[in-house]
Automatic annotation (TrEMBL):
Residues 50-70 have a biased composition (Basic and acidic residues). The gene is PSMD9. Pfam families: Nas2_N (PF18265). GO terms for biological process: proteasome regulatory particle assembly. It comes from Homo sapiens (Human). Residues 1-51 form the Nas2 N-terminal domain. This is Proteasome 26S subunit, non-ATPase 9. Residues 50-90 are annotated as: Disordered.
Amino acid sequence: MNEPLVDCEGYPRSDVDLYQVRTARHNIICLQNDHKAVMKQVEEALHQLHARDKEKQARDMAEAHKEAMSRKLGQSESQGPPRAFAKVNSISPGSPASIAVIQGLATQVHAQGTRVCKWMMRLWSSAL
């Protein structure tokens, strides 16, 4: 690509086809220029993509923060106790609950503003 096409006296070299070499060099240089242009477009597109993603992430975080704050305010203003989240209908024989002899304690009670099963309360208190 970079070797001269003339000899030391300035005459065209006789060992190469000058037309073919010049045409090949021209095509290669054109392809290199096209490649540079495409890579520049890809780079700009990636910068735009990441900028949009960063803006979207910032908007999503702000929206999540607003939603969390509104839920926190809504919970403090609500007056009723929270609804029960679990109810035990039965305990299978051989299960951990059966082994721990807590079958008779699976009645619902109202504990600290939340309806919880007695056996769950005992498990929580023993875990703490």
